[in-house]
Amino acid sequence: MTGPATEPPAAGAEEKPSGTGPSREPQRPQPRRSFLSPFARYTLRRLLLIPAQLVFVLFILYLVIDVPPALTGTSPESLGAIDQGFVHLVVNIFTLNWGTADYLRYNLPWTQVFAYYLPPSIQLAAFALPIAAVLAYPVSLLAGWSRRPGLDAPVRLATLGAAMLPAFMLGTLVLNLIFFNYLDWFDDVPGQGLIPSSGYFFNHNGAPSWILYGLITRPTGFPLIDAILHHDWTITLISLTKTLIQASVVAVAYLAIFFRHARTIVRSVREEVYIAGARSRGVPEQTILWRHAARAVTPSFLLIFALTIPEYLGVQFAVEVAFADQFGFGYLIFAALVQGYLDPLIPLVFLIAVLVLVWALIVDLVAVRLDPRGVMSR
Amino acid sequence: MRHGSSARRPITSGSRRPSRAFPRVETRRPSLGILAVAPLLVPLVFGGTATGGSTERSAPTEPNSDLAAYEAIAERPRLRERWARRPPNLGFLVGAGMLLVYLVAGVSALFVFRGSLDTLPANAAWMNSATVIGPTQAHPFGVMPGFGTDLFDALWRAAPWDLGIVTSILAIDVFLGFFLGAIAGLNEGGLADAFITFVCDSLGTIPTFVLASITFAGLLAVAPGSVGLPVFVAVFGVILWPTMARTVRERARIVAHERYTDSARASGASFSRILLRHIMPNSVGPVLAQLPLDLAPIFFVLAAFPWYYNCQLPGGHPTPPFSPPVPYLVPILPAFSPLPNSAFPEWGYLLGFGTCEAFTFPGNFGYWWMYLFPLLAIVGLGVAVGLVCDGIERWRHFDR
Questions:
Q1: Which of A25, A373, B138, B177 has the maximal Cβ count within 10 Å?
Q2: Using one digit for the tens of pLDDT, what is the confidence trace for A28-56?
Q3: What is the Cα–Cα distance from A81 to A99, expressed in whole angstroms?
Q4: CA nearest A346: which of A68, A94, A115?
Q5: Which of A56, A264, A333 sits opposite B202 (nearest CB)?
C-alpha cells in the first residue's frame, strides 16, 4: 500500500521526524532577523546613549551649581526660573553658546579659550598614553602572573603607595629634581607648559610671532607641531623634552591606578583551564605568558583603560598645574575651583564628559573587535 | 567533617534542643549597631567563599534529611577554625598593625588635645623663615614655619579628624556602592540595573575630584560654612559610589548565574535572601580591590587645592588685603575648602601647604620634612588599608 504522495521538503526547511502522529516537540521561536550586525547594533546603542548621558551629566551639574543659589532667593521668580533654567542650559550647551570668560585676561568666548587650552593637553595625552601603555602592559602581566611573592609583593606595595601619592606632589618633586640640570641644558626652566618660559624668550630676543600672549602657538595650537611647521628646531627640542618629562610623570602616576585593576584580570586568566592545559602539556611558561595570557588579557586591559580614563584625566590635570601656572585644561579647572568661579565649570565638565564618552566608545569598540564576549554582554 | 567533639555528637531528628552547632549557625544575623559596615561584614557573617558561596539552608528533601543538613553545615568551618587552618598572611598582619597604630594615635589625640583639637597652636618664635627648625630631638618631625607649629604635634592632632573623614566617606561609599552594585548585578537587564548602570556610567565620565569639588562648592553656597566638613564627607561618599557599584555589578552578574544561585532561586528563595546570602558575600572581592583606591581622591582634594591656592595661583600667592609683609608664607584656604579655619589640623592640608612652603625656600630639597611626614601619614594609611584588603582577599581565596 502506498501512502499519499508527498512533496519534497523545500530547500532550507527542517525535515520533520518520521512518525505517525504529529510532532510533540515545541515550536522554537525563530530568532528575529535584523538588518544590523550585533556589532553595528552595539555601536548604535552606545551612540544613542551618549546624548542621554550628557543630558544627565548636565542635570547633575545644574542641580549642584545653579539650583542652590536660586533656592536661596526668596522671590517666586527665582524659584520659577529653576525649571526653565535647565532647558536653557541644555540648549545653550549643545549649541556651543557657552558665554564669555570674564575672569581670565582674554575676555573671549569660552569656546575660543577652550580652543587655546585644549591642544597642549591633547599633545601631553598623546605622549603620556603610549608611555603608560608600554609600562603598564608588561609590568601588570609579569607581576600578576608570578606565583612568587618576590615580584608581586614589592610591585603591589609600590603601586599602592604610588596610588596614594597625589600626582601634583610627584610633579613637584620631579620638577625640582631636574630643575638645575634643565636650566643648564636649555637655558630654560622645566615648568611653564610645553613651550619655553617667558624668561627664555626674554634672553633670546623675545617670543616669535607665532606664539600668542607668550602662551598659545599658532596655527594648530599644538606646540610641537607648530614649532616644526615654523622650522624652529630649538623650540621643537624644548617642547619635545618638556612633553616627554611631563608625560612620563603622568604615565607613572596613572600606572598605579591601572595596575591594581589589571593585576586582578591577570590572576583570573592564570586560573583558566586552557592555561592549565598548556602547562600540563609542557609548554614553556614564557610561551604561555606572552602568547596565550597576553592575548587573553588585552581586551580586559582595554576595558580597564576605558573605565579609568576619568582617573587618568585627573592625574594629567594635576601634573599640568604642577608644571605650569597657565597651561592646559588642568589650569582652567583648578583656577576656576579655587577662586570660586563656577560658571565655566559646566561647559568644561561637559567637554570632558564628551571626550571621555567618545574615547571610551572607541576603546570599547576595539575591545569588541578583539573579544566580542566581554563588552557586548554589558 | 568538623574537627572537635561536636562531630561525634548524636543528632536526633525530633530533638527539642538540638546540638549547639546547628542553631548557632542558623541564628547568625548582623546586629543593628554595625549597619554602617554591614556590607563588608556580610561575607564574614554569612560565610560566603569565592568558590561556591554559602549553602542554602532550606528544608532538605531527602529521607535522611536532618543528617544531610547537619553534615552540610558541619563541613563548613567556622571563622576561628578557618583562621587556624589558614592563618592570614604577613601583609595582612602588617596592615592590621599599621591600622592599629593609626587608631591608637587617633584615640589618644582625643584625650591629649582635648579642647584644642581643631586648631594648630602657633608659636611666633618658630615663624621666622631665617631660622627654620628641622627634625631634632625636641621636634622629631621638624617645624612648619607658616603655621608656627611642631609638625609631630600637628600630625597627631590631625589623626582623629582624618580617620573620621576617611572612615565616614568609605562607609557611605561601601554602603551605597556594594548594595546598589549587587542589586544591579542580580537584576541584570531589569529596570533597576538599567537605572543604576546609567547613573554610574554617566557620573563615571567626570573625574572624581572634579565632581566632588564642584558639588561641594555648589552646596556650600546654601549651607553655612560651619557644616563644611560634614557636607564634604557626605558629598564625597555619594560621589564615590558609582565606581564601586560598577565593579561590584560586574562580579554580581557572574555570581547571579552560578549554580548555587540558580538552586536558591529554584528553591523559592526571595530576592533579598539571594542578594544577602549569595550575591553580596561572593561579590566582596571588587569592594576590597576598590576600597584603597577610593582613599586617594579624598586626600588629593584635601591636599591639591591648598597647595594650588597658596603656591601655583597665577599672579602669585594671595595675601589678605592690608596685611603687613611677613617673613613666611601665610597659609590661606581656597574659597570652597571644607576646613573651618586656616589653622585646622588635617593631613592633606598640611601636605599641600608643606609642599608649597618647602619649595618656596631657596635650597631645593633642603626642607624635606615639611612634606615628607604628612605624605608618609597619608601613604601609610593607604598602604595599611590596601594590605588589609588584599590580606582578606587572599584569605578568602586559597591561592591568590
A1: B177
A2: 666 666 677 878 888 888 888 899 999 99
A3: 19
A4: A94
A5: A56
CA distance to partner chain B, nearest, from residue A312 (Å): 8
Is residue B53 less than 8 Å (CB to CB) from chain A? no
The SS3 assignment for B323 reads coil
Alpha-helix residue ranges (DSSP H) falling in chain B:
21-26, 38-46, 65-74, 79-85, 90-112, 151-186, 191-203, 208-220, 228-255, 259-266, 271-274, 280-282, 284-307, 347-360, 369-396
**Which residue is closest to A333 within chain B, CA to CA?**
B210
The C-alpha atoms of residue B375 and residue B369 are separated, in whole angstroms, by 10
Nearest C-alpha of chain A: how many angstroms from B304? 7
Task: Tell if the CB–CB gap between A310 and B336 is shorter than 8 Å.
Answer: no
Q: Which helix or strand (DSSP H or E) is residue B339 part of?
A: none
What's the burial of A58, exposed, middle or buried (CB within 10 Å: 0-12/13-18/19+)?
Answer: buried
Asked if B313 contacts B356 with a C-beta cutoff of 8 angstroms, the reply is no
Q: What angle do CA B289, B386, B185 make, to 5 degrees?
A: 15
Asked if B333 is an interface residue toward chain A (Cβ–Cβ < 8 A), one would say no
Q: Given CB atoms, is B303 within the 8 Å cutoff of chain A?
A: yes
Q: Of B202, B334, B365, which has the smallest distance from its Cβ to A53's Cβ?
A: B202
Distance in angstroms (rounded) separating the CA atoms of residues A173 and A318: 13
Where residue B67 falls among pLDDT bands split at 50, 70, 90? low
Q: According to the model, what pLDDT value does residue B155 have?
A: 94
- Among residues B176, B178, B190, the alpha carbon closest in space to that of B276 is found at B178
> How many angstroms away from the CA of B77 is the closest CA of chain A?
25
Cβ pair B348, B371 in contact under 8 A: no
Are residues B248 and B178 in contact, defined by beta-carbon separation less than 8 angstroms? yes
Q: Which residues of A touch B399 (CB under 8 A)?
A: 271
Grid coordinates representing A201?
624668550
Which amino acid is located at A179 in the chain?
Answer: F
Phi, psi of A256 (to 5 degrees): -60, -40
Give the residue carrying C-alpha cell 593585576.
Answer: A263
Most confident of A190-199, B100-109, B252-261: B100-109
Which DSSP letter does residue B60 get? P
Give the three-class secondary structure for B306.
helix
Given a contact cutoff of 8 angstroms between Cβ atoms, the answer to whether B297 and A313 are in contact is: no
Give the dihedral of Cα atoms A220, A222, A226, A232; nearest 10 deg: 170
**Chain-chain contact of B308 with A179 (C-beta, under 8 angstroms):** no
Handedness of CA B146, B147, B152, B155 (dihedral sign): negative
Spatial CB neighbours of A312, under 8 Å, sequence gap ≥ 6: A129, A132, A250, A254, A257
Option in B289, B308, B379 nearest A164 (CB): B379
Given an 8 Å threshold on Cβ–Cβ distance, is A342 in contact with B218? yes
What cell was used for A29? Answer: 521561536
Look at residue A203 and give its three-state secondary structure: helix
DSSP B322: T
Contact (CB<8Å) B314/A321:
no
Across the interface, of B205, B307, B335, the residue whose CB is closest to A53 is B205
For residue A175, pLDDT over 50 is answered with yes
ipTM: 0.79
Neighbours of A307 (CB within 10 A): 20
Asked if the C-beta of B209 comes within 8 angstroms of chain A's C-beta atoms, the answer is: yes
Minimal Cα–Cα distance from A271 to chain B, Å?
10
Inter-chain residue contact B334 with A352, CB threshold 8 Å: no
What's the mean pLDDT in B312-323?
Answer: 57
This model's pTM is above 0.90: no
Q: How far apart are CA B33 and CA B24, in angstroms?
A: 20
Domains present along chain B, CATH in parentheses: 85-396 (1.10.3720.10)
Backbone angles phi, psi at B143, to 5 degrees: -125, 145
Mean per-residue pLDDT, B7-23: 40
